[in-house]
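FAQ: What does the model actually see?

It sees only this:
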Amino acid sequence: MPPLMALSSGTKLGPYEIVAPLGAGGMGEVYRARDTRLDRAVAIKILPAQFSSDPFRKQRFEREAKTISSLNHPNICTLHDIGSQNSMDYLVMECVEGETLAKRLEKGALPVEQVLKYGMQIADALDKAHRSGVVHRDLKPGNIMLTPTGVKLLDFGLAKPAGRPLTGATLSAAATQPSPATEPGTIVGTFQYMSPEQVEGKELDARSDIFSLGAVLYEMVTGKRAFEGKSQLSVASAILEKEPEPISTIKPLAPPALNFAVKKCLAKVPDERWQSASDLASELKWIAESSSSSASVSATSSGARFRGPLAWKIATFGLFAIAAFLGYVHWRDVQFASRTQVVRAFINAPEKTRFNFVGDTAGPMAVSPDGTRLVFSAGGFLWVRSLSETSPRRLEGTQDATFPFWSPDGRFIGTSVDGKLKIMDISGAPPVTLCGCARHPRSELGRRWHDPF
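And it is asked to produce this:
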């Protein structure tokens, strides 16, 4: 593309007066300008000369501009006008204040709460466009603006001609070009967010944007690009053949459901991805609500008050549970006499708490399937203790949890909180709500348990 002529401050393009340059890229130069008729700030993009000289591209650009101008959505940058002056086509867009996601990612990964918030907004904007027959085709951090009120999607497929299919020859040529580290602004940066069908030059639909959004979400969560390489060929090969490192490996505290949502976006085959941006937006909303619900549980425990006969009942039940547990340990010792294992069978309630074995915020002590851990209720929370340790560990986010029980594989703990069935990973991940259930559901939950992971 021949270089565009820089416009100086004060230059007039129709009713628009250039104020200052904002940036430049492969699709033209962008300037801050003033609409002299309405006295408002706008952004003007000067398009490459080949769009004016090619009648087909010019016609297509005008058709897309009309379509995109009808996209009224709070997270899509509004297209106000198009024009031409001195054989130079230009777009007039909403002037968005903020920084690009690409600039923000230079500082590292984003908090999960922001990832979910921005991800929902981007997916919702894409759904609006897709329902109007518009595919972005160039979704990447540089085309996402972060503003005080949320995200704005830029360059919604505007003036983007159908690319020449990437054959083996073109990919081989691309492999000889410098990497982004040696030549900033090369196409490699865009390659890293292309879908497999886009790399192969196939027909694109909305699911191509969903793949690109998955790559953006991955980078937002981990701070790393999903697909990397030193050349266009190596990046394209990674997109077509490799799977990115699991989010759970890089960010162990990220919600497992988010790892699943992003992985589904990045499926190589379009039919295996989310089939609409609306489905993805709903999934991200569910993850955000589940995480928010877990985080909102108070970390302050209130000691239970025990009076009169109730205290004796609890003490009796506790002794019975301990006796039953000791019998179980003895049986295990007999069955596995050849295995040496230290078991400390004298169990005290955690400091400044009492066991909750009966009542509305209670439940009997439960032994893990492999007999190495206990879960019990004390002081209004659930606690886990390994039999090879002397102190239990409190499970955060389990206030008022009742009737705890183990999954068959011993990896998860199920419980009832406020009439809802929740499960949590014993590693410390916050509880996740599965469904509603009875107030005292122990027997029912045991029958219905299935491992969703």
